[in-house]
C-alpha cells in the first residue's frame, strides 16, 4: 500500500508514528551522526507495541513487574529515546533529545544502561540485546515460579535487526531460549532486507523463519507498516505456548524518504535538510524541528500512563503480602548484598585455615559455593558444558530447565558468549546474582558480553578455571597466557586470582557483595596448599595485595605472585632466606583493588629498596606498574612468567620447561642483588 | 545392529577401524589424559572417509591439490594422529603416538598446525574448525576459477561435534558457506547425543538438519557404524550441486565400551585398564598395547598410497604448463612475499611525503590497497558489513560470491568471528593473503579466531578502523580502550597503529611480507596530517619505534605516541620547545617490533635522562615497560590516555574532556621536570 493511503487509512496511528520518525530524523540531523533509517522503519511496530501491548508506566520506570523492552538493534537508539520522551519518562526531556550524542546527555550514541531510565540494557554491539534478553526471560520465569504470578508476570520484548541475527551469539541465544521454552520472550525482527553494506542478499541467504523454528520458536509474520496487522501479530505473540516467538516485521528502512528509503544510504547517516523536508511532506508532518503538536503529545502521554492501574494493583498485592514474604521479595529485588554471606564466608575461611586442605582453587570455589548457595537464594549458577571441570554445581541446586523453574543451575551448553549475555540479563532483570563457568582461555569467546558487564557495571561472576599452563596436557589452545592482561586492562573488572581456599572465599565474598562491578575468578586446575593458615576476619583480598609471608629481617627482596604461583614464591622465599636473603612474599589476588588502596598502604606493602620479582604463569604486561613503580620510582625488578604460548605436557613439566619454579625465581633475585 | 554382528558382517572394515580405536584408547591411557570417546565413535566414519573418499597421498602431505581434512572436534585428536600414523605419514611415528600429549611430541593435546604434517589447522576451541573450513572451501573454489580444475579440484571434509554446532561461530560459518554456495564443503557431524555435561538434551533441542537447510545446505543422514551406509552417504556428499553438505552420522560415543560407551564418562577421561581390556575383547582385538598386526598395517599403508597416481598426474599437468603459467601458479602457492609489493609501497610513501595529504589512516589504508591490490593477485579483501567505514574495497576487485569466483572482495556480513576464521582458512589453504575489516572494538567478537591466527602463525591482516574515542558519537560500546593492550599482550601478533599515510604504507608492507605473524592495523576514523614529510626508502615502522622529530638540543623530554596521538605529541613538543624545553617525539607504530630491536637501538631512541610521557587514547597497561624501562632503569614518566570507558560526543570534545591534548601533555611534562 502506498504511504499516502496508509496515512489516510489510519490517521491516528499515523500521527503517533510520525512523531517518532520526525524526532529521529531531527535528532540525527542535529547531531550530524546516527542511524535514522531504523527508527523510521520500525516506528509503526513500536507505536503499536508501546501503544497497546507493552506493560509499563512511564511514571515508574523501575516498576519490577513491567515488561522489558530491549532495543537489540541499538544503533537505532533514537527509536527508544523518542518513545521514552513521548510517553513521558521524566528524565527524557526534549533537551536531551536535542542533545542526542552530545557530551553529558543521557541520549548516548547507543542505548546505555544507567544513562536513561527505560533503557534496560546496553546495546549497540550487535546480537547482545537478543542474547541478554534470554537472561531477562529466564529471570522472569524463575521469579514467577518462586513468587507467583501475582508478583511476577511480564514479558520481554526485543527489537532486533539483520545484524543481530547474523552474529553468532544470536544462535547461542535462540537455541538456549528455545530449549528452555521461554514463551514470554518475543523478538520483533526488523526485516528490512538492508545492512550497512547494502542488501542483505549481498551476504546472507538464510531462511530465518526456518532457522528459528529449528530452535523451537514459534514464528509470525506481519506487514510492519500496517498497524492492524502488527496488532494482530503482537496479540498472537502474547499467547504463551512455551515457545519463544519471532515476529518477522516486513519493513522499509527509512520509510517515507523518497530518495533513501529502502536503501543502505539511510542506515547510518543523517538524511540531510532537503531530504528531511521532502520526507516531512510525505508524512504530512507540517511541524517545526523537534516540535510535537499538543494533541499528539497528549495521546502519547496517555500511552505512558496505560500501565498505571496495573502497577497500582501490583503494589497493592505486594503490600498485602505477609511481612516475611514481602521482606523476602524486597530483599531479592533490592540487589543489595545478602547479610547471610559474611558469616558463611567466615566459616569457610576459619575451617580452611584450621584444616589446611590441599585442593585446586576451582575445588575451593566449589567449597565456597557449597556454603553460600544454601543461604543465598539469589544465586543462579551454570557452566558452558564444563560443570565437572568448573565445579560450579553444588548439591541441591536443582536444574533450571523447561520443566523445573525452581532449579538454580543452568546447563548453558557450549555457548560461552550466550551464557555471559544471559547472565547480564539475569542480573539486570533483578532478583538474581548469576555466576557461570568456562575455562579462562575461553574468555575469548565471551568477551563481547563480558565487556558489557563491565561497561554496565553488572555484578555477574565469571568462574574461569584451568587458568594457566597448569592445566597441562590440553595444550596451548586451552592455556591462557594473555587473558589476565586482557581482563586487567578492561575498566571496571575485578580479576581475582586467589592462591588458596581462604583467598578464594574472600574473592567470592567481594564478588557477591558489589553491585557495580563484574568479577572474574581465575582458578587453578591443579592442587595448591593452604597458605593462609592463620584465620583473620578481615578480608585481605579486599586490599588487592598484602604481605603473606614477612621476611626474617628488613627485606632485601620482595616476591609478588598470584594464584598457583604464590606457592612457588613461598618456596623461593624459603630458599632465599636459607641463603641469608630476607625475603617478603606479597600475594596479589586482585591488582585492581590494590590500585585503589591509598599510597601509604601501597608503600607499606611494596617499600622502595628491596628488589622485586613477580611470578605469574602468564605474560608480564600487567605487572610492570607494580614491578617498576607507577611513576617510575627506581626499582630493580624482574619477572618469572610466560613470553609466548604454552605447550602440551603434564603441568609440572611445563612449569619446569618454561622456567617458572622456585629455583628460577631464586636465580633471578640473586642476579638483581 | 549389535557390535558383534557388525564385526562379523564386515571384518575387513572392522579391523581397520579397530586399529584407530585401539591406538586411541592406548594413547589416552598412556597419557592419562585426553578424549577417547570421540575417536572410538567416529572410527568407522573416518575409516570409510580415508579409505575410499579422501584424496590424499601420505608420502606428499603438502600436495596442493589434496582434499583437506579438518578435525573441528579437536579434542578427539587421537583420531587424526591414528589416521596419520596408520596411513604412513612419515612424521607420525609410533613413538609420537606413544608420547601423545608429552613435551616435545608433535602429538599435541589438540591438533596444532605446524606440529604434524596432515594437520591442516589448529582446532580444539570449539567451532573454529568448521569456521576455518569455510575459508579453505572459498580458497579452493577461487583457485579453481583462476587456474582451472586441472590444477585445483578438491574438497574440504570436516568432522564436527555437537560442541562445534552449539558455538555461535558455527552459525556465522554455515550461513556464509550456504550463501557462497560452497558445494565442496562437507561436514560430517558426529551426532552422538553426548557433551561433557551429559546428554545433549540437557542443553539443546535444536533440529540441526532443519537449521542447516535454513542456511542453504544439503543434508544427509547415515548410520555412523555401518560402513556401507557411510559409504553411500559420502558418495552422495561428493556430488557438488552448489550446496555445502551436512552428513549427520549417528554414532555412539566410546563405541564398544560396555560400561562407558554412549555416556559422557568416555568423553574426556581415559577408560582405565580394566575397561580397555573389556573393550578389546568386544572388538575381538587381541593385540598388545600400541600393537598393530602386519596385515592390518599393510592395508592401512595401501590406503595412504591411494592418491599417489592422482598426485603424479597432477604434477605432470603442472609440469606441462607454459612456463609463465607454471611460474604464476608456483608464486601463488609459495606464500612468499610478492616482489611487486615493495615498489608499490615505495611509490605511495614518496607521493604522500610530497603531497602531505590530511586523511584518516583508514583512508590511508585504502590508498595503500589501491596501489597494492592491482599488483598482488593473492590479496582477498572483505569486511564484516562495514565496507564504507573500513574502506577495504578498492576499485576493480570484484565481489567473490556464488556467481563470481573471480571476485576478490567478500561481503562477510555481520560475522566478525566467522570472517576471522575464514581468513585463517584462506591463508592456510594457500594461494591467498586475506585481509578483513571491522571496528577495533569488535576485535572482541573475533578474538577466538584471532588468537588462532597468532598461535598458528598465519599472516592474515585485520583492518581495524575507528580505533579509539576518536570515532566520537557512537560512544563507549564502539570505543576501544583496552583492545590495544589485549592485542599487545597476545604473543606473535603485530599491532600497528600508524600515524599517517607513510606509516600506514609501511605497516601494510610488513603485514604483507611476513609469513609467520598476523597483523592488526588500528586505524583512525578522523583525519590526521602527514607527519613523515621527508621520503625515506627505509621502512622505519619495521623498527617499531623511531625518532620522528628530534629535539632542538639534548632532549629534556621524550614524548612517545601512536596513531592519532602522534599529532598531539608533535604539537606538545612544539609548545615545549617554545618554552625552552628541548623535546624529542618518538613515534611507536608497533611495540612488538621495537621490543625485537637490539639494546643499542632502543637506548638510542629512548636514552636515559629525559622525562618520558606517552600519549595514547587507550589504557596505560602496555606502556609501562617503555615508560619505566624493562628492568627498572630509573625514569621520570607519565601517561596521557584513558583510565575508563569513553563517552558519546564529537571526537574533539572527548579528547578535551578526557585530557588527551597538547596542553595536558605539556602540563604533565612540566610537572616532571
UniProtKB/TrEMBL annotation, chains A, B:
The active site is at residue 416. One of its GO terms (cellular component) is cytosol. Thiamine diphosphate binds at residues 75, 124-126, 163, 192, 267, 442. Substrate binds at residues 35, 267, 362, 389, 466, 474, 478, 525. Residues 359-530 form the Transketolase-like pyrimidine-binding domain. The record marks 35, 267 as: Important for catalytic activity. It catalyses: D-sedoheptulose 7-phosphate + D-glyceraldehyde 3-phosphate = aldehydo-D-ribose 5-phosphate + D-xylulose 5-phosphate. Homodimer. NCBIfam families: tktlase_bact. Belongs to the transketolase family. This is Transketolase. It comes from Paracoccus sphaerophysae. The lineage of its organism: Bacteria, Pseudomonadati, Pseudomonadota, Alphaproteobacteria, Rhodobacterales.
